[in-house]
Amino acid sequence: MIFKFKAVSQKTNAEADEEVSEMKKQTLDLGNGSHVIYIPRFLSFDQSWKFFDFLNTHISWTRPTIRVFGRSCVQPRDTCYVASPGLPELIYSGYKPRVYSWDDYPLLKDILDAVHRALPGSRFNSLLLNRYKGGNDTVGWHADDEKLYGPTPEIASVSFGCDREFLLKKRPEKSPKGKGSDDQPARKRLKQSSHTDQYSFNLKHGSLLVMGGYTQRDWLHSVPKRAKIEATRINLTFRLVL
Ligand SMILES: O=C(O)CCC(=O)C(=O)O
Ligand SMILES: [Fe+2]
């Protein structure tokens, strides 16, 4: 069944429930209390292009200098940060983004409302936007495990524009001293870390991906470079700052 995103307006609870139940939802249990939900057609194709055009043109994008492994470098993607007033400040990779308000971009509030309707019981109050202007733009392996999100952050990621691959890989397990996996033969280690330790999603235009439970503690994610891609992708990650 296909989820159709109609006008962004107030809906009755019954209408909202119907919308959510019409969406094709795939859940992936990553084990040990981590999971991912993927809804490929969260927003309709046409509506999503309207959102893309608006965001591409009107968001106040910046490409900041960040610090990675002790070195300064230009972040390989554009970014913008929106949050409700009075929340603790976000700092990542030594960079403290300027905070825009939801009132600066009412359309983002509409997308937030649609996310809330799709995920009853979840709440988000901040949003990190990323724009990848072609396949050289990327986000390296990381977890969104900043303290301000608490121990089990839920992150709702909406994508527009060009499809990009999104990878999830298990963090290497910390082994107790002296009993590390280094003691095992290489062949056995390889076997153990082979199958379900990495997943790939092709994040489609108008899709919603949700990372929940302990995903930020136990897994890393990335959007790798893709030399042949020239088109732009915009990604919105909604988060709850506690
Ligand atoms: O672009 C994406 O799909 C992921 C972005 C991301 O991981 C982040 O902003 O922390
Ligand atoms: Fe992330």
Helix content: 10-25%
Strand order of the largest sheet: 1-2-12-9-14-7-5-6
What order do the helices and strands follow? HEEHEEEEHEEEEHEEHEE
Bound molecules: 2-oxoglutaric acid, fe (ii) ion
Strand segment count = 14
Strand content: 25-35%
Query: Strand count, sense and closure of the main sheet?
Result: 8 strands, mixed
Q: What's the oligomerization state? A: single chain
Look at the helices and sheets and give the structural class. Answer: alpha+beta
Pfam families: 2OG-FeII_Oxy_2
InterPro entries: AlkB-like (IPR027450), AlkB-like_sf (IPR037151), ALKBH2 (IPR032852), Oxoglu/Fe-dep_dioxygenase_dom (IPR005123)
Organism: Erythroxylum novogranatense
GO molecular function, one term: broad specificity oxidative DNA demethylase activity
Produce a short descriptive summary.
The protein is built from 5 helices and 14 strands. By secondary structure, the protein is of the alpha+beta class.
Note down, in words, how this protein is organized.
With 242 residues, the chain is α+β, with helices and mostly antiparallel strands. The chain contains 5 helices and 14 strands. An 8-stranded mixed beta sheet has the order 1-2-12-9-14-7-5-6. A 4-stranded antiparallel beta sheet has the order 8-13-10-11. Residues 171-196 are annotated as: Disordered. Substrate binds at residues 69-71, 145.
